[in-house]
Request: fold
Amino acid sequence: MHLSSLSVVLSLQPMKEIQINSHHFTLHPSGAIFWKDKEMLLIADVHLGKVAHFRKHGAPVPANAAFQNLEKLTEISNYFEPKIICFLGDLFHSKLNEEWQDFEKWVEYTKAEVILISGNHDIIPQYLYEDLGVKVYDELLLEGFHLTHHPSEIKGTFNFSGHVHPGIRMRGVGRQYLRFACFYKTLNGLILPAFGNFTGKHVLKPSVNDEVFAIVEGEVICVSKKIQN
Amino acid sequence: MKQSELISVAEDWFQSKNWKSFPFQKNTWKAFLEGKHGLLNAPTGSGKTYALWVPIVLQYLKENPDYKTKHQKGLKAIWITPLRALSVEISQAAQRFADDLETGLTVGIRTGDTPQSERAKQKRQMPDLLITTPESLMLLLASKGYDKIFKNLTAIVVDEWHELLGSKRGVQMELALSRLKTVSPQLRIWGISATIGNLEEAQDVLLGMDSEFRKNAVLIKANQKKKIEVRSIIPKKMETFPWRGHLGLHLLEEIIPIIKASKTTLIFTNTRGQCEVWFQKILEKHPEFAGEIAMHHGSIGKDTRLWVEQAIRNESLTAVVATSSLDLGVDFAPVETVIQIGGPKGVAKFLQRAGRSNHRPGEPSVIYFLPTHALELLEASALKRAVKEEVVEDRMPYLLSFDVLIQYLVTLAVGDGFFPKEIFPAIQKTFCFQGITEEQWKWCLNFITLGSQSLQAYDEYKKVEVTPEGLFKVESRQIAMMHRLSIGTIVSDSMMHVKYVTGGFIGTIEEWFISKLKIGDSFVFAGRTLELVRLRQMQAQVRKSTKKSGKVASFLGGRLPLSSQMSKILREEMQSEADHKRNTPELKALSDIFNRQEKDSIVPGENDFLIETFKTRDGYHALFYPFEGRFVHEAMSSLLAYRISLLSPISFSLAYNDYGFELLSDQYLDIQTVLDNNLFSAEYLYDDLQKSLNSTELARRKFRDIAVISGMVFQGYPNKIIKTKHLQSNSQLLFDVFRDYEPNNLLYLQAYRETFEHQLEEGRLRLALERINSQKIIWKQCEKATPFSFPIITDGLRAKLSSEKLADRIKRMTLQLERN
Reply:
């Protein structure tokens, strides 16, 4: 897909607006969340470099897939024009490889300030990020919101995290099953779906108080009972 | 020695054993000694091993007149067997003949079970005859200097070729043979096959399409007829006989006298789950059998299976409940009786099972057939005819299996490397790749060297490298090792070992079954009720449960559809019923059901195509009876539903079994419009099928095997699960990435092709549609469900066809979100 056609699709994609502790958030079908009040874009588990890592070891994943991740990043930041882009961990899948250079160019290009909350896959040394002007934190506490890679709990805060790659399994008539990536909201936290396109899902089974927003064909749909509309 | 002298050496040996050679054996000896290739059609237990081993030895005698004093070292013949378990018996038979003739020839076995030290010894000095599997042969091609090993090979014998033919292992064999033809100039290629419908084609696949090579080939048939007697177990009271069901337990008491009356009885079931249940129930109802009956299926630990096999041989068991794991191979002389539970769905399979009993010459093999529901009696009646008229199925060979080709190319690259120019002509001459284009070939080479991308400056893709001389070679030790571990074309589901907490291996079971259990749940497996204690990596640790019953282990697959040959005979049986002949005991027993079917609707004759419609509180039912087997019905029902939905918006729920299918809707469906619009047309079949079925989902499932075979998904080092995690992806993910970024990838496209050719049996569907178009269509508007319709409308396996958008469907699926 070329940039121009992608932007048309993105702007048409229905998003989901939610409120948490009187802050406003937009759930975008790409898997990103736009925090309106802070003009901050939250993105989890891009896993850049994963495609190249596989290819280097003889698994012929299409190289285009890697390229698309950065295109999608560019596109979504153009769309929301955030002040800050915060990656909730696992930005890079592996050691330095060719995809790092593309990432460098992207950081240079983007107008927003870039922050990384470090994840378990982020083994690239911190100073390399800092050379690019990317700040690296283990966690971040911001106006009662706690930003982490692994889901965690601090009393009195609401947690945004990644790591899990949440997915949901839906049952249809006649034993049909469908699986989708989703935003997974519990009472005190929200887990973002993986942004990267070569990442996979981990299927969760929600309990009664959980809210699930599935990404279905470019649309964010609430599939849990609680706040149906 | 002249040929006649050589033959008499063998004849003398037969005489010394008090045997007499069969004409087919002698014909094979002669053909072999004349340097011919061929296919031998002979059943198990007919002396086929000596038909081909004898001339291999005789050829050696001919070339080495002083064989008694001077042993010419080096590999002379390879014997391929699909089952490791068969190798020991073949080796014993072969060694006996070689020793009695004082040839000094040695026989060795090389399979996945062969210890590393033994393999290394073989590498230094190959035995004269090597008994091996297709996978182990491939591994030899992946070793350095393999051409020296095979230089003096005079023969390769592919045993049980019919078993390999219809699978990708067959393709693997074709490719290995194409290479051996080049590196072993004196090679003769021979196959041994049981009777199948397409023997000539089987020979084409084995020997390849090179006409020069084929000139020198023969097809030899053993023509050893075995009498088979089929006896149906007919329930005494038909009224209480269920119209549907698949376990058949209500007839359990009927088989007890049969078991008691014979020395050893084999009870064949169609699935491993059914096997478990029958074993449990027999013991529960008849505790007196404790210790005298056993169970045998593919998931049970190898030691237990071998123990059962040995116990059958030494007559210490009264009965064994088994699945197809006992279909093949080893002869069990003490087996007197065979019982088949449920329709075997194919004639060849039924014959193979019947043949397991009674090996006394002259006496017939007896097989009892136990139907699991009423209409299966019709199948019994059809089976009897099939046996009498010797109808057997075809085995469909695979075409253009690029996944196997890619594996093969990397195998050669791991070994000595290859020059494409040299091996391409040989590949083009195989049956599987006779239609490969230059472009496809280049794509495959590009795939293994550049990961199917055009050359990009910074791409680090590494697998096969090309030397300046143009040799394709794997240089990385890690890639070579990963590839060697992945050679093979049998992709199994992710399996878990089931072990006692105290140690002690019980068997393997599909991961998805275990994943549905909670800790503390009990389940029935390998004839025991077990409690799940904990999961450790790929191990389920269990202890004996005190509970009486539990979930019965269920397994994927196993349910085979009716073969097209069986379908045809079944329709003919129907005709005889429509004519009110009722000339078999089975049809007589079914008379109540048929009378009711006649009253409510009709019993369709051979040239009738029956459609029934009626209304229940579930909605409007429309039933169609092509009698073509479940797979064809699955496709045909989707096709028809799709075509109807083009006429006006409508949603259907679909159901099918081996006899027919149903379209259920909440709207009235006028069959006349279906007929007027010619909706059974075979035109635009492929396009309409693409649109009607969830072909993406079906292809995604096929892609799993393709991804593993072609080396895109690495399944990990044995017992080292963690270390390779950073390289593990699943085929689902890859499938999606290909769909989005590389839709012309040949392996991705192959998944669709296999879906249509092998899963949906597109060819058979087309023939069925053509047949329906030539039949008289009879539409019966019935008051209520008919006997024929009942098993279909109550079937739980339903699919749905709808033209709604996915997102709209999800909105409606909301309520069915799975919760804890």
